[in-house]
């Protein structure tokens, strides 16, 4: 009888640990902007944009003048991002890794400015 109680108690602990771990993962996915990309068009004209990540994942979209476009990328890979505006390559000094906080690309006439924003608590 004592052996069955130990097995049940151990099973409860294992199940509880798995449930808490799964819940923590879901909360992290909801609250942490990993893979979020925010693109800002700083120009006074509409653009056709193509962004290719080192993983090969590509996002193509039209963006209105002085507006923004948001999307989420599943796998960035590791390396630099390739940016095309109106089907022409433009320089983008960037380096992404497999885990990235919020990525912001600001589109200029002749280049794309790359920044990474982390969530920090200011005291």
Descriptive labels:
123 residues; alpha+beta; Immunoglobulin-like; four-stranded mixed sheet; 1 helix; 24% helix
N-to-C span: 55 Å
Oligomer: single chain
Please tell me the total number of domains.
Answer: 2
Outline: elongated
Query: Nearest-angstrom radius of gyration?
Result: 21 Å
Percent in helix: 10-25%
Average of per-residue pLDDT values: 86
- Largest sheet composition: 4 strands, mixed
Please tally the helical runs, counting DSSP H or I stretches of 4 or more residues.
1
> In CATH's first tier, which class of the largest domain applies?
Mainly Beta
The structural class is alpha+beta
CATH topology description of the largest domain? Immunoglobulin-like
* CATH architectural arrangement of the largest domain: Sandwich
Question: Unreliable stretches, pLDDT < 50, 5 or more residues?
Answer: none
Structural notes for this entry:
This protein is of the alpha+beta class and 123 residues long. The protein has 2 domains: 1-31; 36-117, Immunoglobulin-like. It has 1 helix and 8 strands; from the N terminus they run H-E-E-E-E-E-E-E-E. It has one helix spanning 2-31; strands at 36-41, 47-52, 58-63, 68-72, 82-85, 88-90, 102-107, 112-117. Strands 4-1-7-8 form a 4-stranded mixed β-sheet, with no helix packed on it. The chain has a 4-stranded antiparallel β-sheet with strand order 3-2-5-6, with no helix packed on it. Strand 7 and strand 8 form a beta hairpin. It is elongated. The mean pLDDT is 86.
């Amino acid at each position: 009888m004592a052996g069955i109680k130990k097995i049940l108690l151990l099973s409860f602990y294992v199940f509880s640990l798995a449930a808490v771990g799964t819940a923590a993962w879901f909360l992290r996915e909801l609250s942490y902007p990993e893979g979020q990309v925010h693109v800002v068009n700083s120009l006074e004209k509409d653009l056709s944009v193509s962004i290719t990540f080192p993983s090969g994942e590509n996002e193509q979209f039209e963006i209105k003048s002085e507006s923004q476009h948001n999307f989420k990328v599943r796998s960035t890979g590791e390396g630099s991002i390739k940016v095309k505006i109106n089907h022409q390559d433009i320089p983008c000094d960037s380096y992404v890794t497999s885990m990235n906080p919020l990525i912001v690309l600001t589109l200029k006439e002749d280049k794309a400015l790359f920044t990474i924003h982390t969530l920090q608590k200011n005291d």
